[in-house]
Structure formats: C-alpha cells, structure tokens
TrEMBL record:
Organism: Panicum virgatum
Keyword check for Zinc-finger: no
SUPFAM superfamilies documented for this protein: Anticodon-binding domain of a subclass of class I aminoacyl-tRNA synthetases (SSF47323), MFS general substrate transporter (SSF103473), Nucleotidylyl transferase (SSF52374)
GO CC annotations, alphabetized: chloroplast membrane
Keywords assigned: Aminoacyl-tRNA synthetase, ATP-binding, Chloroplast, Ligase, Membrane, Metal-binding, Nucleotide-binding, Plastid, Protein biosynthesis, Transit peptide, Transmembrane, Transmembrane helix, Zinc
Protein name in the entry: cysteine--tRNA ligase
InterPro entries: Cys-tRNA-ligase (IPR015803), Cys-tRNA-synt_Ia_DALR (IPR015273), Cys-tRNA/MSH_ligase (IPR024909), MFS (IPR011701), MFS_dom (IPR020846), MFS_trans_sf (IPR036259), Rossmann-like_a/b/a_fold (IPR014729), SLC17A9-like (IPR044777)
Length: 1103
C-alpha cells in the first residue's frame, strides 16, 4: 500500500516531467491544464544527433524499475501478435516516435483519435516509471500544403505554421501532453540530405534528372511490415506513377524543384524532400537508428512505414524498431474519416458543442486498434458520462473540505477492497494493449459507491465516510490522470458540460421529454402543463432554443438545483427538463423566472422538439447558437424510435404524433428490418418443401433417395450462385442483388406445382429457388458491412439472418394446415406470392427514401446523409458493361484470400455448420413423423421448436457479443466463444438424442431443440467474421464460404437419405455425421479463426 500511495501522490509530476532540463515546476503545473498558451511554452529545442539519444534524460532508478508490478503487452503490427514490452535500454529508457500531421487544414477527430491514443501510451509508460523520449513531427512542406497555399494565395510556410499552431491548440484542449520534441521537416534538411547520401552510397537509390528514387528491388525485405508483395498495390494508395522509375513501387527520396515551390540546394540540384524520408531522418536524429516504438494510423502501414523501414535499413544496416503500433480509423457513415475524402469533422467544431474531454472520453471508449464510428449519439453518451463523473468528484471534494478528517484511523475493509479492485482492473486492462474502455468501466463502481456515501451515508460514521470518499477520489484521480481526463477543477468541468450541451438540442437517452415553449398569450404564466394532445397546441406554442437539465428519479435534490442554476445562467428564460411529472420537478419550477413558461408532457404523449429548417433564427434563436447541419440525428433518430417526428408545416417547431412508428427510424434500421423480412420469406420458401415432400412422395411414389434428390437440387443452385452473388453485390450494391434474388426464388417457387410431375422441370425449379436464395446472404452481408458499425454488427447480423429462423417457424406452422386444407400445391403459390409482395413494398420504400432524401442511396456510389457507406457502383445504373464486371473481379485479391488461415477456418466452419443445419432442416420433419410416430401436423409443430428456440437464443447472443466488444474484449475472442457454443452444443445434444439410446420422444424433442437453438450463436461468431476481417470484400468472402457451405446440402441431404435406406438408422445416417463435423469444426475454429483485419482488407487511403 505504501508503494501505491507513493505512486498516486507522485503521479502528476511523473506524467508532466520532461527530458528537457529547461522545463520548470511552473511549466509542469501549467501543462496539467494544457491551455493553448501553456502548451506552446513547453516546446523543446532540437537535440543534436548522437549515438545515445537519451543522454540528456535522467535514468530511471532501480527502485522505480522494481515497482513495475505489471508487464505491459502491446500489439506489434510487424509480428501480428501481442508482445511483452521490453525496452532496448537496460535502465528503462524508452524512445517513441509518432508520425505527425501535414498541417494544411484544421485537424479532424481522426487526428484526435491517433494522438489521444499515443498520448495515453506515453502517460502509461510514465506511470510504469519508464523515462520516455517522445518525438512527434510536423511535415511542414508537402504537395498538399503547396496546393492549398496556392489555392489560398498564401505562403506555404505561413500556412503550415498557422495550421500547426491550431493543431497544438487542439491537442492542448484535448489534454494531450506535449512530446519531448516536435521537429519540423524544414528545420532538418541537412539531416535528410545526409541520409539520402548514405542510401545512395549503399546502392539502394538512383538519381534521375534531379530526382532521387529508392530502389525497392535492391531491398529484398521490402513488404515485411505490411505482408505485401510489390504487385499488391491498390488504387488510392500514395504510390506515384513515373515512367522514369525502374520499378513502379520505387519512391522519391528527393524531388527536383518546380516553379513556384520551396526548394533547397542539394548534391542533386535544387529540390525538396520526399514524404517518406522525412520521418526516417528525424527519428534517427533524435532517437538513433534503433529505438523502441514507432506509431501512427493504420493507413500509414503501407506505403509510409514500409518505406521508412527500407530507407532506414538502407542508410544503416543496424536500424531496428522493436514495436510498430497503429491505431484504427475514425469512420463517418462507416467510411474512414479523412481530409482527402472531404468527410471529416474538425476538432474545433466538436468542442464548440462539447467539453473537449467529452471528445477524449468518446475516443477512449473504444480500443485504439478498433475502428470507431463517429455519431452525435455516442458523443452525447460520453458527455453525460463525463458530467456524472465530474459531478460526483466535485461533490466528494466539497464534502471532504467541509469537515476535518481523522487520518489516523484505518479505512473500512470494503473501501480498501474497492480501491484494490480498481487498481487491479485498471492496471490489468491497460497492460493488456491499452484497453482504455475497460479502464473507464472500472471506475463506474467506485463512483456509485461514492454517490452512496455522499447521499445515503450507508450507516457509516461521518469520519470514516469522509476518509473513504477521499481515498476513492484519490485513486480515481490516478486513473483519470493516466487517461488524460483529469481536469484542473472538477467544479468548472462539471459546470461546463451542461453549459456546452445547451447550445443545441440533444438527446437524453431513454428518458422522457419535456419542452419549453414561448407562450405570448400568457405572459405572466409561471408554468404551463400540457394536458391535451400536442396537435391542439400547434398554433399556440412555438419551439425555441433551450437549455437543459437531466432529472431522473434518482437525482438528488441538491444536484437538481445545481443543474437548473447552471442551465438558467445560460438561458435565463428557457429550460428543458428531462423526466416526467411528480415532486422532483417542484424545486426546479420554484427557481424559474416569472416569465419562464414550462411545457410539461403527460406520460401518454411522447414529445420531441426540433426547429424547422425554415425558421428558428433571430436574436437568441437556435440558428444563432449552432449550425443546423449539426443537429439532425441529435433528436430525430432517438425520437423516431418512439414514433415521434417533427411536423414540417405552417408553424415552426410544431409537434405531431406520427404513424407508423418506424417513420423516424434511422435509415440503416429500416434497411436491416426490410432485409430481415426478405430472409423470413426466404426460409418460408425453403422449408415448405420439407413439409410438402411427404404428400408429394405419396402422390408420385418417391422413395427416400428420390425425395433427397428433390430437396438437394435446391443446393445445386445455391452453391452455384454464391460467388457470383458476392461479386455482383460488390459491383452493383447489395440492395439491387437482393431484389433480383427475391423475385427469382418467388417466381420459381410458384412454378413448382406445375412441374412437379416432370422430374427435370421440378429439379430446375428448385435450382432456380436455390440461385435466388443463394445470392441473398452475400447481398445482405454487403449491406451490413457497409452500413453497420462494429458495435452494432452482431445485432444486425442476428436480426437479418435471424429472419431465417423466424421464416422456418412461420413456414412450419402454416404449411401443414395450408396443405391439409387446400392441398400441397397451394403452399407454393401462397409463399411465392409473399415474395412478390415484398419486392413491391421494397421498391416503394426505396422510391420514398430517394424522393425524400436525395443524398440517400443505400448500396450505391454516393454516401448518403443517413450515414451509410455505399457500394462502388450505383445500384441504379443499368449501363454497366461486361468489361466493368471483369475489371471489378480483377481487383479482388483472390490469391490473398486463400493464403489466409482465417479464411480457411471460416470455410471449414461454414461447411461443418451447414452439414448439421441442412440435414436437420430437411429430414427432421420426416424423423418426427416416421421415427417418433407423429402425424403431419404434429411433426410440423415439433419441427418449429428448434427455429423458435433459435430466435430466443439469437436475441440473447447478439447483445452479449456486442456488449463484450464494446467493453474492450478482443473481437477474435468473442467470435471464438460464440462459435464454440454454436458447434459444441448441438453436438452434445445430438449424441444425447440418438435413437439408439432409447430415449422417450419428449426427451428427444427437447434435446434436439436445445442443441439446434444454441447453434444460432453462430450469427455472432462465424457470420460476423467475414465483415470483421474485411468490410470491403465481406460479400465475396461470404460467397466463398457459402459455396462450400452449400456442399452439405448437395451431398449431405441425399447421402442422409441413402444411408437411411441402407441402414434404417437415424443415428448413423443423420446424427453421427453432424456430430463429427461439429467437433472437428470447433477444433479448426479455435486454432485458426481470427477477426483481425487481414492484409488484403486494409484501406490505405491517406488522411
């Protein structure tokens, strides 16, 4: 405990210490708060190049090194695995270089994501008592800077200096500690020229007309970081094409001067450095040719960092970097945020509306290597969580200052347990590759305990209570310090959160809504209570900008008054109350000014407020406080879930209850719902033959082998259509392919009764059904991969593919009575008609979306305003040539697919799961009818139980998986857990339900139902992995695995019938093969499966 106390007391000075001897105690204190001015005071002079880059750094003491109780493990991109961190220097000195920005525009939150992540690494290394020399550069001369300067008519150096200063200000606002050194390229031209000379001397570069190019052919190790070969370059990567190059992959070390561009003299003539050589030269200058950590965004892996390795080793053969660390992208509408794509949101724009540390908390809420999807809703959650944290710590600080604490007494045992648990969870999560989301979650319980101590006392003595509060606050302070979330003042930070949020109308999560309105007819009214439907008040009330205060049933009275005072200070006449009725609003109403009316909602009338686009201006109006473009989604999406939408009509801000309730839902939810409905119809059409096969076999005299042939013919078309379906979905968009698939299988289903007596015609019809249904999974996967973020992926897959289980239930429920009452032919007509109706409705939905929101083209070439990324080619285009399709297929890295162990694991797992699924789906009704002696209706009803259980299990498994990922659990581990449950469970229950064991019928039904229901965990395992490892090629990957997965339908279904005719044993023919494949599939999955983005999936677009 003494060591822990010493660490907590000395943490802040350790975090703020610097290798520079020039830093003073005053500057260390200023850097805690990190305002703009103090940040600039902390710049460091460049250190001369030396072979000992840590010569000016005080060595870590042996005592400090001995106190490192945790072993830090970091994911090394080069080795593609987590490795224990071991610094090169024996005394614990660490060298870290992070590629900086190219300052030609305002920094966006993609930059914030990168530098917040490495700031946390910097802080945590210092927390572990390492002495860190942190270097982060500015590329202050570059093609983009020159182009922007010419556009603005500004000097390139002046422009880069201006945006560099703005970047420093942004980093200060986000409380990123200043690096030890922040070198600029323009100050290190001599070092760059010297390194190029060394590379030329070592015969790894050549000169062409004043340009110097690196020769990748002379560097055999080129590609070892990214795992790519020279012919793997993709469109969008910064690999310049120049016919003068010996190899297209050769890159510029020095560029000859052009008119109007800055230049420096060199042995090869006037010019300027290339992009890649800058970092190699500056990192070697400040850290030596070999150091510990090199970091940056994952878009820099190739070509930038790959080229850095080549340059550095060509200049010095001993050059070596131990750990290559890369952060994931920030996505906007499921597409990487970058300046070059024009979809970026600047840091400054965000912190105008939110506390800067709310943005930092939002970024730390996702593991640094995982992609994070930027949404207003998630920022609201982070802001509310930050406010709750600071409010609790502020109240704790004030309480502890009011009375004297008896420091001589020991802390209560439960308090010590909470402190120790927080300490262990924090260090464990941070030492496991910086799982900041888990570290943030670790403070939730201590904060709850502190609130209990503050407001309920829990029967503790006053002195012990204050000591417990102080001890818990001290430990949380340590955690917040390492995460960079410790403010200069809890009171000021807590007050700033609701004040900033009040600049616009934001969502209040699931809480109920009240709305303030201006009431000119009742100027002296103190409060107006809404007691009638909103429609009657449309002409009486007019929506206005509001401040807000969150009031829940558990909010303490003191907190309510504080929130009201803070909100009223900003907008003295307007207040938005989240909550509903009751006594908890009375103290707030008493604080309202006489002319501040209060519009309160009744429980039965859900309200939402948004200012119409045609109004809302004026002095103090909503438009004057925040840009309207930042508001959509802040209210509309969440309210839409409750069936509420603003009325764009004669009165601005008028309220109206809308029907249907999904009218205001986010478009991605509508799309997923419609796709799921298609899959419901899909399996209804698939299982109807499983029931109809019994009367059809009697009518046409089919034996088990013939019946198996009829059922398996579906899988011929299903297998043939998988790869074409995936490729077409990538080219045309999943939406168009899904529509064509539904039309195909619906028409073919309706055709079956007409050709049932003609076996070739029947087989052909079933093949067409298989083709139509075969393209649908790839189309749906394309839609999910492009429109759903990682944190929602398991649920989206479960909803869409769970429609198959629901379709099985409906098909098995309705097919028997339809067949018994109307004949077996009728089931094909009715179910086929449902698909045609769906297509008409889907077209109507698409037309409505395109008409009401022209920016929305799901699965098309543009990125819609709803936030869904799109396919490369518009799904509305009809003039694509065969050459377009051929070119699209040429771009697919087929060879790389089959070199990936993860892909092979998916292929085999899909085969194994499909064997059990398809054989059971086809033969269970017959098994229940013939073996368990159930009649047709009873057999069908019993056959409903497995898919019905699957629906229940899916609703549990999907949130379970998403919550694990959201809480920082490794995605691969989550997928392995889910898929293992999906395989092992049915294997066990099939063994128990074997008829050779002589179990009674009800036990057999129960065991089969349980096993097959638990197999739906695969929707959160295997079926998500395609999108995990490559969003771009997810549809094609599913096409590959589904092709192999269709083989059990082709082979397994008729083979089961053949074995049944030969052995007359359901155990041998149906259960034993399934158990074998389930168990071997589990072994392969655990050994080789991975959800890490594969080499072929990385997008290399540059920020």
């Amino acid at each position: 405990m003494a060591a822990a106390a010493r660490r907590a007391a000395g943490l802040l000075p350790v975090l703020l210490s610097s290798p520079s001897a020039a830093r003073t105690p005053l500057r260390r204190a200023l850097s805690l708060i990190c305002p703009h001015r103090s940040y600039r005071l902390l710049s460091h002079p460049a250190r001369p190049f030396s072979t000992s880059p840590f010569s000016a750094t005080a060595p870590a003491s042996n005592g400090a090194a001995a106190e490192r109780t945790r072993e830090l493990h970091l994911y090394n991109t080069k080795s593609r695995k987590k490795e224990r961190f071991r610094p090169r220097a024996p005394n614990g000195e660490v060298g870290m270089y992070v590629c900086g920005v190219t300052p030609y525009d305002d920094s966006h939150i993609g930059h914030a994501r990168a530098y917040v992540a490495f700031d946390v690494l910097y802080r945590y290394l210092r927390y572990l008592d390492y002495e860190v020399r942190y270097v982060r550069n500015f590329t202050d001369i570059d093609d983009k800077i020159i182009a922007r300067a010419n556009q603005l008519g500004e000097d390139p150096f002046s422009l880069s200096k201006r945006f560099s200063d703005d970047f420093l200000s942004d980093m200060a606002n986000l409380q990123c500690l200043p690096p030890s050194v922040e070198p600029r390229v323009s100050d290190h031209i001599d070092q760059i020229i010297n390194m190029i000379k060394q590379i030329l001397d070592n015969n790894c570069a050549y000169v062409v007309g004043g340009d110097v190019y690196f020769s990748v052919d002379n560097f055999p190790e080129y590609g070892e970081l990214s795992g790519r070969k020279l012919d793997d370059n993709r469109a969008g990567e910064r690999v310049a094409v120049d016919e003068r190059k010996r190899n297209p992959a050769d890159f510029a070390l020095w560029k000859a001067a052009k008119d109007g561009e800055p230049w420096w003299e060199s042995p090869w003539g006037p010019g300027r450095p290339g992009w890649h050589i800058e970092c190699s030269a500056m990192s070697a200058h400040y850290l030596g040719h070999s150091f510990d950590i090199h970091g940056g965004g994952e878009d820099l892996i190739f070509p930038h960092h790959e080229n850095e390795i080549a340059q550095s080793r060509a200049a010095c053969c001993d050059s070596s970097i131990n750990y290559w660390i890369h952060n994931g992208f920030v996505n906007v509408n499921s597409q990487k945020m970058s300046k070059s794509l024009g979809n970026f949101v600047t840091i400054r724009k965000v912190i105008e509306m939110y506390h800067p540390l709310a943005l930092r908390m939002f970024l730390l809420g996702t593991h640094y290597r995982s992609p994070i999807n930027y949404t207003i809703e998630q920022l609201n959650v982070a802001s509310d969580r930050l406010y709750y944290t600071y409010q609790t710590l502020r109240d704790c600080e004030e309480s502890c200052q009011q009375q004297h604490k008896n420091s001589g007494d020991s802390l209560p045992a439960d308090t010590l347990n909470y402190i120790q648990k927080l300490h262990d969870e924090f260090e464990t999560s941070m030492s496991d590759d910086l799982h900041t989301s888990v570290a943030l979650a670790a403070i939730s319980e201590p904060l709850k305990v502190m609130n209990d101590l503050l407001h309920t006392r829990k029967g503790k003595k006053q002195e012990k209570r204050l000591e417990s509060l102080a001890a818990l606050e001290e430990k949380i302070r340590v955690v917040l310090s390492v995460l960079g979330l410790l403010p200069s003042s809890y009171h000021e930070a807590a007050a700033a959160c609701p004040r900033l949020a009040s600049r616009g109308i934001t969502t209040c999560g699931p809480w109920l809504y009240g709305a303030v309105a201006h009431v000119p007819r009742q100027p002296h009214a103190r409060a107006v209570v809404l007691s009638s439907p909103p429609r009657k008040l449309r002409k009486e009330f007019q929506a206005q900008p509001v401040a807000r205060a969150h009031v829940t049933r558990n909010t303490a009275p003191v907190a309510r008054r504080d929130m009201a005072a803070s909100a009223l200070q900003h907008e003295p006449h307007l207040l938005l109350l989240a909550g509903s009725g009751g006594r908890r609003h009375r103290p707030l109403l008493r604080m309202l000014p006489p002319r501040a009316p209060f519009l309160h909602r009744r429980r039965r009338w859900p309200l939402a407020v948004r200012v119409s686009s045609g109004d809302g201006g004026g002095a103090g109006g909503f438009a004057s406080a925040v840009e309207k473009s930042s508001v959509p989604g802040a209210v509309g999406e969440d309210e839409g879930a409750r069936g509420v939408e603003e009325l764009e009509g004669e009165v601005a801000g008028a309220l109206e209850l809308r029907w249907p309730p999904w009218e205001g839902l986010p478009e991605r939810y509508k799309l997923i719902g419609a796709t799921s409905l298609a899959f419901v119809i899909c399996n209804m059409d698939k299982v109807n033959l499983s029931v109809a096969i019994i009367p059809m076999s009697h009518q046409y005299g089919w034996n088990s082998s013939t019946a198996g042939l009829v059922q398996s013919s579906f899988f011929w078309g299903y297998a043939l259509s998988q790869l074409p379906g995936g490729s077409l979905a990538k080219l045309f968009g999943g939406r168009k392919v899904l529509e064509v698939g539904v039309v195909t299988w619906s028409l073919a289903t309706a055709l079956i009764p007409a050709v049932a007596g003609f076996m070739p015609g029947l087989v052909l019809s079933r093949i067409l059904v298989g083709i139509g249904e075969g393209v649908s999974p790839s189309a749906a996967t394309d839609l999910i991969a492009r429109s759903i973020p990682l944190q929602e992926r398991s649920r989206a897959v479960a909803v869409v593919f769970g429609g198959l289980s629901f379709g099985s239930v409906l098909g098995l429920l309705f097919a028997p009575p339809i067949i018994q009452n109307l004949g077996w032919e009728s089931v094909f007509y009715i179910f086929g008609l449902l698909g045609i109706i769906w297509c008409i409705g889907f077209e109507s939905l698409k037309g409505k979306q395109l008409g009401s929101n022209k920016g929305l083209n799901l699965g098309q070439s543009s990125t819609g305003s709803n936030g869904l990324a799109s396919s490369a080619v518009s799904s509305e285009s009809s003039d694509l040539s065969l050459e377009d399709l051929q070119n699209s297929l040429k771009d697919v890295p087929w060879g790389a697919f089959f070199k990936s162990k993860a892909v092979w694991a998916m292929i085999y797992a899909h085969f194994c799961g499909s064997w059990g699924h398809y054989t059971c789906l086809s033969w269970l009704p017959t098994f229940f009818s013939e073996e368990l002696n159930l009649n047709l209706t009873e057999a069908a009803w019993v056959s409903v139980l497995p898919p019905l259980g699957s629906i229940v299990i899916t609703s549990i498994a999907a949130p379970f998986a998403d919550n694990l990922i959201a809480n920082g659990v490794d995605t691969t581990k989550v997928r392995k857990i889910c898929q293992t449950i999906a395989f092992v469970s049915p294997a066990i229950f099939m063994m128990l339900s074997s008829v050779d064991l002589g179990l009674p019928p009800w036990e057999t039904v129960a065991f089969l139902t349980s096993g097959l229901a638990l197999s739906s965990f695969a929707f959160s395992g295997l079926y998500c992995t395609h999108q995990d490892i490559s969003r771009e090629y997810a549809s094609i990957l599913l096409g590959i695995t589904n092709t192999v997965g269709a083989v059990p339908g082709i082979v397994g279904v008729p083979l089961t019938g053949y074995l049944l005719d030969s052995t007359h044993s359901w155990s041998i023919s149906l259960f034993a093969p399934s158990v074998f494949f389930y168990l071997t599939g589990t072994a392969v999955w655990l050994a080789f499966a991975s959800s890490e983005p594969q080499d072929f999936s990385r997008s290399k677009s540059e920020s």
